[in-house]
Amino acid sequence: MHATKTVRVLAMIENNWQPILIRKESGLLEERVSLWRNHRLWHIAESGYLIDGFEQRPGVHAWQGEHLGKWLHAAVLAWRVTGDERIQQEMVSNVERLLATQLPDGYLGTYDSESTFVAIPERGLVQDDVGKTLHNVGWDVWTHRYNLYGLLTYEQYFPDERIVDACRKMADLLISVYGEGGSDITRYGTREGISSTTLLESIMMLYERTGEKAYLEFAEHIVASIENNPAHRLMGAMLDGGSVVHPGNGKGYQLMANLLGLLRLFRCTKDERYMNTVLKGWMQILEKHVLVTGGPWTCKMEYNANRECFAYTEDFDPEEIFVEGCCDATWMQLNIHLFELTGSARYMDEAEKTLLNSLYGHQHDDGIQWCYFTTPNQSAMEFSPRLHCCGSSMPRGMEMFSAHLVGEIDGALSINGLFPFTAELPDQFGAGSVTIESDYPFGSSAIITLHPLEAKAFRLEFRMPALSVTVESVLVNGNEVKVETRDGFYRIDRVWEQGDVIDVRYTCHPAAHIQKGEGDRKWVAFTHGPLALAQVISEDTLPISFDRDKSLASMLSLVAADGQNIRYRIEGTNIDLVPYFRAGTDTSGTRTYFPVN
Q: Considering all CA atoms of the chain, what is the largest pairwise distance in Å, rounded to the nearest integer?
């Protein structure tokens, strides 16, 4: 029996870094997130696609059900910043309509009764001679994973026991099918069940919310099922020094989502095997599978399943690889949650790089269209208004980043970068507000102004990414001060008063990055601070290569640096490089990597 009331199991979880609510972004962050909040958010909500598949089963697409949970996650975070009543009303409507479609046994998917995971718990049970076409097979567990995620995120800010009960019913049904002694969840769906086992994270969210042991036990059973499948075995592969190319065919998006589940398991159990798995997977993805744009790349090869799967570094070719938008968003999530747990700037550095380059590069300036895939060297972008999975995933990454612009760690006010924003100060920091004025990642200075209602002594820290950025000086009220450093953060201890101003002056440097790949070939890509640079190209643009692979950064000459208008020229050529996310348009593509002979 379930208790009438539930208690969140937060005391068990050591969130070392806790976010503080911001009230407004500015600059590039505001420009890009507003495109989602004012356009794509409503494009999806008003289409009917979010709820139709639940109210009129079966849905029109096998994974139509994922979109509502993803949309809820991003919409909740957008509402937290904006307080937009229209967003709130739309969320309430969708949640109520979704709950109304739950069946008595707890089922809350978009499949017909003969096609659900309950009716067909393993793909091996689907016969060719069943006599009729099943509408959907293989993504029903996936839908429940995102229902749990979206509803539990929503319920954090709009507490409602009915929602928790609906989540329990979904989980209890899943346990009845895939729990101890039941069917094998890794035999449901494709890629050795790696999509289905992303359920791990959502089940852990329910455990964190309720504290009910059955959900922790089910989560650990899912891990056991993963490890018992030699073709999945994510934890074993990572702990044994294996490659992310193998578990579940190396399906990039889902593999990282499984790591998110293991990270939550570590937070609740302190079992170091889970954390070691996550860290080994994270390091391998970073070192071997992340582009200069921050996008995790994948490629179809004979040894994997499709172009959404990780491939070996020796198969890198900038015209043949892909970055799936869902990979961008999930890589950002993984880094942000690792940052929450550790407070280490290295994780936010990576999330920031992905946001500013790869994710923004997927987003069209009209606020509605998104690319499903991008390729670092492509003559034309593939923007689309279609309601695809990536267009629903990437706003989640944007909103999560905005939700982590400022926070608290060990009693310190932690400013997580120098993006412009306004936030309210909690009482321990004197109440009032804090603002940042800057053009970051452009420009060369940022002004942090504190407006506490009363003078308070505390430590203030700010992050500067270790991505070719140098802090030149830090002034408080016009006087240069000495700062300490902590794991990528610059720290100042003092009594802070109304109107105190911190002036941070920095320089973003050009840099060259060598990538080895197919046939032992080499490519070079260029950056300006955290921004990847690219050439604006079309089908008619002629190829070019360089004859040397040293001192390549010195080949760049800064042509323009007016606000967001940054432009470099490669000396001895007529090639200009601009921020990657600006290069791909309706009429142009990007060349990010250049061959080195």
A: 81
